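Example 5.3 — Heparinase II/III-like C-terminal domain-containing protein
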Amino acid sequence: MLVERYGSARLEELDFGDGPYAPFPKAEDREAWGSLSSEKRANWLRLADHYADYGWPVLKVSDYRAYWTSGDLSRLSLAYFERRSVLGILVIAECMAGEGTYMDQILNGIFAICEETTWVSPGHRSHWKEFDKQASIPSSTESGVELASAETARLLLWTRYLLGSKFDAISPRINERIVRETKERMLKPYLEHDDYWWQGFTPGERVNNWNPWCNGPVLAGFLLIEEDPDVRRAGIAKVMRSLDAFIATYAADGCCDEGPSYWSASGGGLYECLEMLSLASQGRFDIFGERIIKDIGAYMPKVHIHGDYYVAFADCDAKASPGAGGVYRYGLSAGEESLVRLGASLPPSGDPSTRIWFNLYGYARDLFVEKERLAQRATAPYMRDVWFRVTEVMTAREREGTEQGLYVAAKGGNNGEAHNHNDVGSFLVFADGYPLLVDLGTEEYKAQTFSARRYELWYLQSQYHNLPTVRGVLQHDGWPYKARNAEYSQQGGRSELRMDIAGAYPEEAGIATWARTVRLDRDGVPAVTVSDVFAMKDGAPAEMFHSLVTPCEPIIGGEGSGEILLTYAPGKQAVIRYDDGHLRARIEKIEYMESRLRRNWGDRMYRIVLEERQPVAAGERTIAITLERG
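Solution (predicted structure tokens):
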């Protein structure tokens, strides 16, 4: 798409790097930086003052090796990412204050980062061919472009852009060091390599959010520091070719199968690249009218539930912070009103010191659209019905334009998706914007997460999703394990997704058919119903149970009631009704969660287990969720 329209023959016409490329004001523009709100200024200065005596923690070789010896990535990450967040905070604060208050600490941070042996995360070193998997010692001669190294380069590039003239007033060695390290560690290896898997140049290799995430800093490098016009054009052309590979493998319905918490790097990362190309060419580069570009952006309002809750499957967090300014700008560029409204409704980005990645470009761009964004006084669109026909995800809410009432989302798809969990046929239910039945998400990443033992992790397994387990057999991972005959329909007050999920289970489960229907009925007493019609092969009876995961403490009703009560907010209850004649309910506390799950859900979750009272060869089971509206 990009190369076809703006290939090498037209790059000279676009004048990349020849004109004034100023996506936001530099620090010396005191009028612009002084126009920002006093509240915003006070918040950033308060954060920066906290790091006035920051000691720039040592990155230990033993912590780097810990990933290879024990699978622990966190010991290195704490210091590695903290260094970068602190530098970013100090840079923004210096631009706000403009008095040199934070300059010494900024220089300390720049040189501490430039003197690191490697910018490459240990977990990412195995992503290029020449890597020796037995070498757990970082090498100063081993450079590669991956998420951590690219993000580091991005931070330094935009630091130089903002404060470069102030650096030169101190010593030209500061900018020279940034340029040298960024070229050697990112731009040079990028030009030399076509075999980074995320570039999309290897036949059969499927790319994901890494593609725009890494291409964004690379593109910034060619635009900001590459002085040779031939090298700059070659680099930009290669970035375009790589982004084309990303767009070509993106679902044609615009759905991010990695989920909303990855969209900021995936769809949002693509937008950042396209925005930079547009700004650097003074608007001559414009791809935002393409349907796929519009749909990639429109995904976010389509999966927004309420507040920071989004439709989350797989490794995705239940809560996402997509970046209000970026969402808003994407909506304006693509002419997507729902995206504009969502972006305008979101709160400003939270405390940057709590975030792993510090995107200096994003923070600076957001600062200068925030006043306009907030002036919209918009509310989120709260879309009523959505169907992603390629990825087979549906969402439906009781009433459009409000979070009040029932909300359901369900998925078909396959178990070979990016950041996959074995969850074909799973579903979510929310009430008045609060979670009732959910997808847990994932824990902090470690070596096992992306190893051959990935699916030994309990929270990736189908038995910890809202799914059946048959003969003790769980769903299997891989593209062949998928839903069949998925059909979506919306008529009047009913929205539903029907599919056969038998194919998501291996042969030993012995399932012939398992027709699941997830439905929202708005008429009468609104309800979400999940109906399963199943049959075993050869009519052989099987033991089975049905899992339901909830953050609400479930209370099982009296004997024979077939009811489970969930209190989802003070004074608000939902009722799950099930076939008590065939199913026996028990409750398990999930108390073995670690930090990432606890951030999303608190200290405890519950699994409702509906067990078949006796082995069964065929049958129909339905659960219904309604709200107590008294």
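Remark. The chain has 19 helices and 21 strands.
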